[in-house]
Design brief:
By secondary structure, the chain is of the alpha/beta class. The chain has a single domain (4-314), classed as Arginase, Chain A (3-Layer(aba) Sandwich), CATH 3.40.800.10. It contains ten helices and eight strands. Strands 2-1-3-8-7-4-5-6 form an eight-stranded parallel sheet, with helices on both faces. Bound molecules: manganese (II) ion (MN).
Amino acid sequence: MDNSVYGSTLQPFAGITTFMRQPATRELKDVDVAILGIPFDSATSYRSGTRFGPRKIRELSAMLWGSNQVLRVAPLDHLRVIDYGDVDVVPVDIHETFARTTATVKTILDAGATVISLGGDHSLALPLLRAHHAKFGKLAVVHFDSHGDMWDYDFVGYKYSHGTPFRRAVEEDLIDTDAYLQIGIRGSTSALDDYEMATNLGARIMTIRDAMAQGTEKIVETIRQTVGTRPIYISFDIDAVDPAYAPGTGTPEVGGFTSFQALEMVRGLAGLNSVGFDLVEVDPSFDHGDITSLLAANLVFEFLSLAALKKRAAQ
Ligand SMILES: [Mn+2]
């Protein structure tokens, strides 16, 4: 395919917006990674707007050059990456949206490609985990977030919201609870025993205080020891990062990671058996200078780098 129409030979501010100017197509033959937008934000508990996240992250991805100097890899040299476009979401119907998300992701995974999803709110982790579980079995999960998202119900009694996906996923037996880590957890909670509840369900909580006391290198080491060679799903809620660095999100929590720490932790997962990725909760309407979307695009670039290293090692 002639790639130039997307702007790969043009200046970063020119061309049609796809992720890193990769071709917009649903042809999955020989594809290694599909970027998939899921512009759904109807399950948010506070301010909405993450439906505009995927488009904005794509826009900021035009600023990414191709070579990762930290991980020493140029992902597009090893991977055939496409922009699959967006799931056909239904804003007023979470269950239909979940069904369409799972079906779309299954189609991509069955064709042998890896999916990197752009949210959308974090309720989407559930249909994403369902699809990945169908392909890979029980998953180790590395979950960066300020919130555990393990409530039983949201405020008004609904089982499915962006505060509940990981509890549902544990109930549905999608997650290997010997290897489920939540990293960056903080903020006021609805109950004093919130962490205990999550721990009892099988989550290993690494609070922001643990992370700051130990340093990200130690955190990464703990992650690596815990997940081992299991298939790993990486779910990155941008509100794991401090609102000073990532203000564009619906439920910000102060006292979080810096952009640098976030990038370093993802880089630290190199060499593990990563099989799926999402980057959720980017809400451009509350952003300043697009810094949140720019960080999100760079985190996705690190995901791509992990996938490229995995493919390179297998060759
Ligand atoms: Mn979350």
